[in-house]
Amino acid sequence: AAERVSRFGTTVFSEFSALALKHGAVNLGQGFPDFDGPEAVKEAAQRAIRDGVNQYAMGMGAKDLRQAIAEHAARFYGQQVNPDTMVTVTSGATEAILDVILGLVDPGDEVVAFEPFYDSYDANITFVGAKARYVPLRPPDAQHATWWFDREEVRAAFGPRTRLLILNTPHNPTGKVFTREELEFLGGLCAEHDVKVLSDEVYEHIVFAPARHVRPSTVPVLADRTVTVSSMGKTFSLTGWKIGWVIAPPSLRDAVQRAHQFVTFATASPLQVATAAALRLPDSYFQELATQYLARREKLLRGLKEAGLPAHAPEGSYFILTNISHLGFPDDMAFCRHLVTQVGVAAIPPSVFYSPEHRHLGQGFARFAFCKTDGVLDEGVRRLREGL
Ligand code: PMP
Ligand code: GLN
């Protein structure tokens, strides 16, 4: 194998989903719903295939989907998006993240990101020969009602070689939703150092009041420098479709588009037709999604607490980080291995979302996903209560 991939093992998601299958465990690990999205959206995909939408789409994305992405941005964020110059459709947010890093970051540049981080960021930074500078998010404490960051630590991570800041809000795995004030602070630093921003918002519609999703590109200081990344997988409970997109000012969109044309060129045509229909669903669909996730969040939080796993309620995303440090395991990996093989429940050890230097900060937690039907959540909780 080439050096750039030789230090990669199997991703923790594949590893724990395979372990869950092998041990007949309830899978609260990898974040995918165990239910499908709207029938009308699945119907739209089938109709598109029957109607012959089966050849390459336009490289930047089917025109109608780009239009629907612009309408969605206007409806939810009051954002003016030109569908021809500001949008590229990708194969999931995963491709979008790679395209943005390929398009904006040179070898030797530095990228600032928060820990814990979604695992593909670190791999993609490696792919381009850049250097990551990580700033740890700190857990809630007496002074902080939610996960927070030390402003001086962020400031210290910025330097003359910094090209990109990666944001993820709502945040996987902490469930943190960044506030407007936090984004203004970060935007100020980016303006000072002429840094661009990749904003990963795949959980944009899974947010719990009083938290509200603030799209970073709608914060004035960030508007001209932010590439917004999102996808349809979580919002429409169809994670296997892998349709994502970027929205960015034309010059940044161009840089991303140049990378995209040689990464996948174009993405699945019939699923683009159906994604346009999905993005045009009425407001009630999006409200209902958040309401249902709130009920699942409450159910799992309650169950975890009964099983002796206290947790801070996430403000967004479909993940809960529980404290495990009082249980006497050497670390989160040992806890999650025990859980999947002996208790029959899969969770994700969050220390894999940290750099080696800060890995210890994740070792006192485990990540549980609540994008599961009631019966599955109940069975998971029952096993935790009896087996832990
Ligand atoms: N970013 C984050 C924070 C995620 O949690 C995920 C998916 N699990 C992705 C990106 C990838 O999204 P997609 O499936 O659309 O590629
Ligand atoms: N984003 C999902 C998670 O965090 C899974 C993504 C993946 O399997 N690569 O669980």
Task: Please tell me about this protein's structure.
InterPro entries: Aminotransferase_I/II_large, Kynurenine-oxoglutarate_AT, PyrdxlP-dep_Trfase, PyrdxlP-dep_Trfase_major, PyrdxlP-dep_Trfase_small. Its cofactor is pyridoxal 5'-phosphate. With 388 residues, the protein is of the alpha/beta class. The chain folds into two domains: 132 residues, Aspartate Aminotransferase, domain 1 (Alpha-Beta Complex), CATH 3.90.1150; 241 residues, Aspartate Aminotransferase, domain 2, CATH 3.40.640.10. The chain has 14 helices and eleven strands. A seven-stranded mixed β-sheet has the order 2-8-7-6-5-3-4, with helices on both faces. The protein has a two-stranded parallel ribbon with strand order 1-10. Strand 5, helix 8 and strand 6 form a beta-alpha-beta unit. Helix 5 crosses helix 10 and helix 12 runs parallel beside helix 14. The longest helix has 24 residues. The relative contact order is 0.18. The structure holds 4'-deoxy-4'-aminopyridoxal-5'-phosphate (PMP) and glutamine.
Overview features:
388 residues, 42% helix, binds 4'-deoxy-4'-aminopyridoxal-5'-phosphate, alpha/beta, Aspartate Aminotransferase, domain 2, pyridoxal phosphate, 11 strands, Aspartate Aminotransferase, domain 1, globular, two-stranded parallel ribbon, 14 helices, seven-stranded mixed beta sheet
